[in-house]
User: Fold this.
Amino acid sequence: MAAISLNDTELSTGDLWVFGYGSLMWRPGFEYTERVPARLIGEHRALCVYSFVHRGTPEKPGLVLGLDRGGACRGIAFRVAEKHRAATVAYLREREQVTSVYREVMRSVWLENEARQRVSALVYVVDRGHVQYAGRLSLAEQLRHVLQGHGQSGVNRDYVIATVKAIEAEGFRDSQLHRLAAMLHDQHPRPLPAESSDR
Assistant:
């Protein structure tokens, strides 16, 4: 399945904004000049992607986050200087599009700073037609997949807990993710490794 990516004209010129809602919040992996809390309207953060590479395998899939239809999502908008935009887009495509489960799109996000301005940001939204789209799983199903998930970027449990910590550091909560994280702490209480990565 081919990756759904923007063409050069859709990516416009000048500085690039990137919206992070999962591990991009705590491990962006690219150079940026500004980091601002932001809100995207029309899609919500959900553990709706079976991970076959970063946090699981096709035989034992893990679960990672995607933006799915409806609601709103609080996250982080990163401003990337124009001179780094091509390298940043190439990096993000390599990281996010490894199995083409995301659609690369430009979306309006509202910056939660004094200016409260709206910017157009690069965002990775789940492709509902992809085999890795998990849809709305019960908390028990999420827990089962996260506990079994282990891939190239490490243990699935660490990904969920690091994301919850990043959300808390921004001063808000994601009730579904927080419930899952509490269950994960009860299952396997152990510290996070020093290095943890993924989308």
Notes: The longest strand covers residues 62-80. The domain at 16-187 is CATH 3.10.490.10 (Hypothetical upf0131 protein ytfp). The chain has five helices and seven strands.
